[in-house]
Specification:
The protein is an alpha/beta fold. The chain has 2 domains: 135 residues, D-Maltodextrin-Binding Protein, domain 2; 119 residues, D-Maltodextrin-Binding Protein, domain 2. The strands form 2 sheets. Strands 1, 2, 3, 4, 6, 7, 8, 9 and 11 form a 9-stranded mixed β-sheet that branches. Strands 5-10 form a two-stranded parallel sheet. Strand 1, helix 2 and strand 2 form a beta-alpha-beta unit. The longest helix is centred in the N-terminal third of the chain and has 14 residues. The radius of gyration is 19 Å and the shape is globular. The relative contact order is 0.21.
Length: 273
Amino acid sequence: MKKMSKPLILAAVLIFCAGFGTAWAGNIVIKGSTTVLPIAQKTAEAYMKENPDISISISGGGSGNGIKAIIDGTTDIADSSRFIKDKEVQLATTKGQYPVPFAVAYDCIVPVVHPSNTITDLTMDQLKAIYKGEIKNWNQVGGPDRPIVVISRDTSSGTYEVWEEKVMKNERVYPGALLQASNGAVAQAVAKNKNAVGYIGIGYMNDDVKPVSVGGVVGSSETTLNGTFPISRPLFMFTNNWPTGDIAKFINYVMHPEKGQKLVKDAGFVPLY
């Protein structure tokens, strides 16, 4: 299964909204991506405030775990920072599950270093060489004479898989990299180590780490939407089959230009519109 184009996603939104129906009170379970987690938390909190008879529980664990949960039928919504894989679709259909994707935001994955590092820009080739373990000292890319400590996400992470695809060109990160389970953990590890390099979703950017531009392009809302930042991606919520009832109402809320999409921006990510 290929990634949905933006026009197809927006067309699905229009069809979905047109078919919007009445919901009933209940519980919604959301599992998956730590990148999408802040969006899910903000929108769920606001939605429950408007709909006090609805209870929404949210947990992280990575995109792969979220998609596994939707396939196993243990979640209503799977957050994912990557698109579903062909093998996951095949597994889902053997279990009678039919995951439906909804793009809920856009994101860019930004390389980050310790604020004391003089590096401000790296090329895609330099990033790949650093994460393959071929460039081992910051002075090889115009920085200080200090060893590079490589921080990466674990393999269940959608952020890792996008990094592997776009930066590593499907080559694996070298075994000496220190693996972290979430965007927040990567940011914290880089903030505590002056030699470190990591990568995080733009919504996790903070003053404790320093963003690095890629090939002279700064990761931002503008460069994400116009496609000039090379490590950009849509963020998804998957449902099993076309959603109805409470799940449909919540998905519509997340995608609403004046409601959920404003909260997407508040969370530091890039709205659809």
